[in-house]
Amino acid sequence: MSVHPNQPGTVRLQFASANDFSNTRLVHDTVMGGRSHGTLQPVETTALRFSGHLSLANHGGFASAQFNLKQPLPALNFQQIRLQLAADGRRYQLRLKTPFIPDGVAYVAHFDSQPGKASYEFTARDFNGQFRGRAVANMPVLHFADVYQVSIMLADKTTGNFDILLYDIEFSALQSI
């Protein structure tokens, strides 16, 4: 976890850093009989490649990479998240978990990726509660400082290969949106 000396109130976590994330794991629709598959591989020291094949066979249709934060975020009033990645043009989900929601439920924001390296910005208003693809009402207010798990999920209902390079995620108390 790195705190920007020139931007107080900003924390950057690098997906390829063992200092920032622990217990990284893949969760695909195979847990329910689906046939999707994917892998996580380091790309030099700067990124992780999450790639594979999304299949709709056997009622499947999702592939995800989950990253548990190695240490809690500072108790700051973070206003935005900036996700830096290089993708394939598919629609992905940024999923966040806090200790104040039930197991299986996540705060979800969808984004249409652009081919090539780009940054995507989110505020708490961009996230909605979901459980297995269904909306969840009456979610607690999302405070980014409570996040303990970050996931990237592909569930765009389109069979085919996917490829995304995950660089970093930045939590900022400064809002540029």
Task: Provide an overview of this structure.
The protein has strands at 2-3, 10-14, 21-28, 37-43, 47-54, 63-69, 80-87, 91-97, 105-112, 116-122, 128-131, 134-135, 149-154, 160-172. The chain has 177 residues and is mainly beta. Strands 1, 2, 4, 5, 7, 10 and 14 form a seven-stranded antiparallel β-sheet that branches. It has a seven-stranded antiparallel β-sheet with strand order 3-6-13-8-9-11-12, with no helix packed on it. The radius of gyration is 16 Å and the shape is globular. The two termini are 23 Å apart. The model has no long low-confidence stretch (mean pLDDT 92).
Summarize the structure.
With 177 residues, the protein is mainly β. It has strands at residues 2-3, 10-14, 21-28, 37-43, 47-54, 63-69, 80-87, 91-97, 105-112, 116-122, 128-131, 134-135, 149-154, 160-172.
